[in-house]
Specification:
It is a single chain. By secondary structure, the chain is of the alpha/beta class. Among the domains are: 11-101, Severin, CATH 3.40.20; 115-205, Severin; 229-325, Severin (3-Layer(aba) Sandwich); 590-679, Severin, CATH 3.40.20.10. The chain has 17 helices and 34 strands. It has a ten-stranded mixed beta sheet with strand order 19-18-21-22-23-34-33-32-30-31. It has an eight-stranded mixed beta sheet with strand order 2-3-4-15-14-13-11-12, with helices on one face. The chain has a seven-stranded mixed beta sheet with strand order 1-5-7-6-8-9-10, with helices on both faces. 35% of the residues are buried.
């Protein structure tokens, strides 16, 4: 903003912000549903109140022009949102002064520069101009001494590889965009090895006296703080603004009424303002003012992020904070169409497994590593050791046991491994622990290359069902050990779900009439609900032969003989509505860098992620809603590696949407990524490392 007017910034200056100014940023991205528009206004730490007010007003006017389809953000220097930071891949540079003194000065004397930039951040880089003095330095960050024709990158002795490489990317970006490629870059990684460059630094900064300071860690919100979501109803009463708390987590979508405006407070980390379609123009106009007023009333820092959201144009980040978010007439996955209001049996469209390698995004969406044609080995945990299971009983799992399932498949001519840890609902804590420890040993035997998947009974992932070719049977309790302590029940009832070898499982349910469901097939007799398909009946017959060798009578719903009800302890009401498939928003996968080192669990989101964002010294978490991937870099530290699973469980536990704690957790190691992981990344390069 120049003299209270919006003036376009030249493209080569994108990412450079003057601390005395305010800026408006418009970002448009094509999506499967059209386009997503974000409007940000950025406040420099030395900008005037008038400029800040004008920037907010311009954003509101732009939103009107865009018919209320934009998500609006208030950004404060040094505290920008992850979405904002994702636009400037090489980093953000803060310059002293304002545009009036700045632009012309930079253009005319391109090389007549002497400044010191303090570079911070690993995933999101920012560079702040600091005093030209050794006092500005510390041991843990990167510093750039910019002398116009020469850029010297000084790496603190405690810097990580990622911080050094991000610093270099920023130095190159300054060279190419500000100096037309005509500047030399020198790097000091160890002062003793670079006497010439150190000589230049001493000429500019003088001799260094005393020790360098330790780095100050960034004050970041931890996951526990972010999980503390509260929803407030905002309205006017007798010219007074009333803010009334109406709910805490887990929040549900029906709390948002179209006639009103709401404030959602995410633990003081971020404030969202939701504006209902039918709320008054005055209410809509006052959104930012109210958010800022709310921040002051709560005593939050003035740098708190604000996001203003319009009814029907919600951001992925916002939807995330609700237990479930549904859209009208949304197609999800491959050929599954959901419509709200109508209760209908959803036809599953079969997909072609031969396409998985050619289209990794299909592997990701279908949660399939391959076509399930590989080799299986199964062990049961017995006396805390691995005991091989008889191959004739592969696919039969008992709720009182834990199992290890090793799946081996070939890709590009070499073996790849997936190691499933199946945990029975009634297994002891010792057995669950032994299962995890034995998995580590088994992984070591296979060169630490296996993808490890934690499977909780009843939450088996798609690929796990597929490898047992329709013969997956889950017994509620008991054990498959030779010496069984418990007598087997005389009557057992199994619910069979699935239409082909790739998606069928039979689960034992209480042998009572109330367990029946019209949409499924049950074994006991072969009871077929009105809503089940021919495919489901065929799969049920196959499973029935494994469960019992006796002849099975097929009974159709509504034609049950008296002895059928007697076996189930008498007739009782059961689920007879057609199954309504829950319609969940097409969830956008999210990538986070995990850090647990400070004793606080901190996650940094990488918005618009790509393979480049996976650094060798990281542990990264990829959340695809149905499963959680943990990617472990080769050079990640032992503490974070060992804490990875605990971090994933903590992430589920503290998730604002109240997530299912039994969500499968998949451990993936750098260089051994399966297709159902790489498919979430655009243009994955298998040879990068």
């Amino acid at each position: 903003l120049q003299n209270m007017k919006m003036v376009p910034v030249p493209e080569k200056a994108y990412g450079t912000f003057f601390e005395g100014d305010c800026y408006v940023i418009l970002h448009t991205k094509r999506t499967s549903r059209g386009s997503a528009v974000d409007l940000h206004y950025w406040i420099g730490k030395d900008s005037s109140q008038d400029e800040q007010g004008a920037a907010a007003l311009y954003v509101t006017q732009l939103d009107n022009v865009l018919r209320g389809n934009a998500v609006q953000h208030r950004e404060v220097q040094g505290h920008e949102s992850e979405t904002f930071q994702s636009y400037f891949r090489n980093g953000i540079i803060y310059k002293k002064g304002g545009v009036a003194s700045g632009f012309k000065h930079v253009e005319t004397n391109m090389y007549n520069i002497k400044r010191l930039l303090h570079v911070k951040g690993k995933k999101h880089v920012s560079a702040t101009e600091v005093a030209l003095s050794w006092d500005s330095f510390n041991k843990g960050d990167v510093f750039l001494l910019d002398l116009g024709k020469v850029l010297i990158q000084w790496n603190g002795p405690n810097c990580s590889i990622a911080e050094k490489s991000r610093g270099l990317a920023l130095a190159r970006s300054i060279r190419d965009s500000e100096r037309g490629g005509r500047a030399q870059i020198g790097i000091i990684d160890n002062e003793k090895d670079c006497p010439d460059l150190m000589q230049i630094m001493k000429m500019v900064l003088g001799e260094r006296r005393g020790e360098l300071r330790e780095a100050i860690p960034d004050a970041k919100a931890d996951e526990l703080q972010k999980a503390n979501v509260r929803l407030y109803h905002v309205y006017e009463k007798d010219n007074d603004l009333v803010v009334q708390e109406i709910a805490t987590r887990p929040l549900t979508q029906d709390l948002l009424q179209h006639e009103d405006c709401y404030i959602l407070d995410q633990g003081g980390f971020k404030i969202y303002v939701w504006r209902g379609k039918a709320s008054s123009p005055e209410e809509k106009k006052a959104a930012f003012t109210r958010a800022v007023g709310f921040i002051q009333a709560k005593g939050y820092p003035s740098s708190t992020n604000v996001e203003v959201i319009n009814d029907g144009a919600e951001s992925a980040m916002f939807k995330q904070l609700f237990q479930r978010w549904t859209e009208k007439d949304e197609t999800q996955g491959l050929g599954k169409v959901y419509t709200t209001g109508k209760i209908a049996k959803v036809e599953q469209v079969k997909f072609d497994t031969t396409q998985l390698h050619a289209r990794p995004e299909l592997a990701a969406e279908q949660r399939m590593v391959d076509d399930a044609s590989g080799e299986i080995e199964v062990w049961r945990i017995e006396d805390l050791q691995m005991q091989p299971v008889n191959p004739k009983t592969y696919g039969q799992f008992y709720g009182g046991d834990c199992y290890l399932v090793l799946y081996t498949y070939l890709r590009s001519g070499r073996p790849h491994y997936v190691l499933y840890m199946w945990q029975g609902r009634h297994a002891s804590v010792d057995e669950i622990t032994a299962c995890a420890l034995n998995a580590i040993e088994l992984d070591k035997k296979h060169g630490d290359e296996a993808v490890q998947v934690r499977v909780t009974m009843g939450k088996e992932p798609t690929h796990f069902l597929a490898i047992f070719k329709g013969k997956l049977i889950i017994y509620e309790g008991g054990t498959s050990r030779a010496q069984k302590n418990m007598p087997e029940p005389a009557i057992r009832l199994f619910q069979v779900r699935g239409t082909d070898e790739m998606n069928t499982k039979a689960t034992e349910v209480p042998a009572r009439a109330s367990s029946l469901n019209s949409n499924d097939v049950f074994l006991c007799y072969l009871w077929c609900g009105k809503g089940c398909s021919g495919d489901e009946r065929e799969m049920a017959k196959m499973v029935a032969d494994i469960v019992s060798k006796r002849d099975k009578h097929t009974i159709l719903e509504g034609q049950e003989p008296a002895e059928f009800w007697e076996a189930l302890g008498g007739k009782a009401p059961y689920a007879s509505e057609k199954r309504f498939q829950e319609q969940v928003t097409h969830y956008q996968p999210r990538l986070f860098e995990c850090s647990n080192q400070t004793g606080r669990f901190i996650m940094t989101e990488v918005v618009g992620f790509c393979q480049e964002d996976l650094d060798e010294d990281d542990v990264m978490l990829l959340d695809t809603w149905e499963e959680i991937f943990l990617w472990v870099g080769k050079a990640s530290n032992t503490y974070e590696r060992n804490e990875a699973i605990a971090s994933a469980k903590e992430y589920l536990k503290t998730h604002p949407a109240g997530r299912d704690l039994a969500t499968p957790i998949i451990l993936v190691k750098q260089g051994y990524e399966p297709l159902n992981f790489t498919g979430w990344f655009n243009a994955w390069d298998p040879y990068k490392w």
